[in-house]
Write a structure and sequence with these properties.
alpha+beta, three-stranded antiparallel beta sheet, 3 strands, 16% helix, elongated
Length: 79
C-alpha cells in the first residue's frame, strides 16, 4: 500500500478571545492518480458546533496547491 502524504499548503493563526488563539491549516493529499483531497483543519476553538464540507482557500494557498499537484503528484495538465 502506498504511503499517504499530507502536504501543508497554508497556515494561519487568529485570535478568538483575549486568551484563545486558533490555528488553521490547509493540507492536500493524493488519494489516487485522478483524485486529491483538500483539508481545512481548525484547532483551538473551545466550542465548535456543526460541520461543513467546504474549504476556505486563499489565493497564495491556491497557487501552492497548483504547484504541489504539478510537482509532487505529477498532474501536468493543470494550469
Amino acid at each position: 500500500m502506498p504511503e499517504i502524504r499530507h502536504i501543508k499548503i497554508g497556515e494561519d493563526r487568529f485570535r478568538i478571545t483575549e486568551e484563545e488563539v486558533a490555528r488553521r491549516e490547509i493540507k492536500v493529499t493524493k488519494i489516487s492518480d485522478e483524485v486529491i483531497q483538500v483539508q481545512e483543519e481548525v484547532h483551538g476553538i473551545i466550542a465548535l458546533v456543526g460541520a461543513v464540507s467546504s474549504v476556505n482557500i486563499k489565493k497564495e494557498e491556491l497557487k501552492e496547491l497548483i504547484k504541489v499537484v504539478k510537482e509532487e503528484f505529477g498532474w501536468t495538465d493543470i494550469c
